[in-house]
Amino acid sequence: MKKFSEMLKALFIKEWIKIRWILIGFFVVSLFSAAKLMMDIHHQIELMGAANLWDILLFNNFNPYRWMEYVPLFTGIAIALAQFIPEVQQKRIKLMFHLPVNENRMLMQLTLMGDLFLFVIFLSELLIALTGITFVLPKKLVTDAFITFAPWFLGGITAYHLTVMVIFESTAFRRLFLILIASAFITLFYQTATTGAYRPALPLLGILTLLAFFTHLYTAYRFRKGINQ
């Protein structure tokens, strides 16, 4: 158990050193997007008054949160690229497969490290955004805001895992096919909708995100076995 925890610690440090600047960059971008949202809401209240803003949020299908929509998506994709492209191109990840650990277990540990980094970034962004609007919007509208944000963050995590799946694929035709499938899948998380409209779909999107955790295992198997057809 001690050796396992030491290995996880070493793995965490390795991944942090490798992609720390990407993580820090997107962490700053995420905090900026949340802060901008907060300032926009306060500015709109100054212009039209709180009651008028609440009215258009409730009845006029106004969605002021679009600024944040694609930040989680680009964050997930960028972290996957930074984390795995050097490993795959330089064949370094094949060395890990010779460690005394199950290969799939090692891959899951690597992607869980990425999930941990994403979770910290997304949670920080979410807390700043929700804390900022809690002081000026009623509870129902804050809840609707959270429901609006949730698919975007789930989409970012899903995009991370689907990008890892594509990176491990070694043939151009299959890679293109997987990109098309992944792109169509991701659109489920980014449908145009009014504030809070995703409430009924959140459980299904959560299940789809969990399933995405395992999508890279097949292409990773092909990669480590050298299957190029």
Give a structural overview.
This protein is mainly alpha-helical and 229 residues long. It has one domain. The protein is built from nine helices and no strands. Helix 1 packs across helix 2, helix 1 packs antiparallel against helix 3 and helix 6 packs parallel to helix 9. It is elongated. Keywords: Membrane, Transmembrane, Transmembrane helix. This is ABC-2 family transporter.
Largest sheet: none
The average pLDDT value, as a whole number, equals 83
What's the helix count?
9
Low-confidence stretches: none
- What percent strand? under 5%
What is the number of E strands?
A: 0
Choose one word for the global shape: elongated
Series of H and E elements = HHHHHHHHH
Termini, distance in Å? Answer: 40 Å
Domains, number: 1
- Structural class of the secondary structure composition? mainly alpha
Rg over CA atoms? 20 Å
Approximate helicity band: over 70%
List key phrases describing it.
229 residues; 9 helices; 78% helix; 0% strand; transmembrane helix; transmembrane; membrane
Short summary of the structure?
The protein has 229 residues and is an all-alpha fold.
Topology:
Elements: H1 2-48, H2 50-59, H3 71-89, H4 92-96, H5 103-134, H6 139-168, H7 172-186, H8 202-212, H9 216-225
Helix pairs in contact: 1-2, 1-3, 1-5, 3-6, 5-6, 6-7, 6-8, 6-9
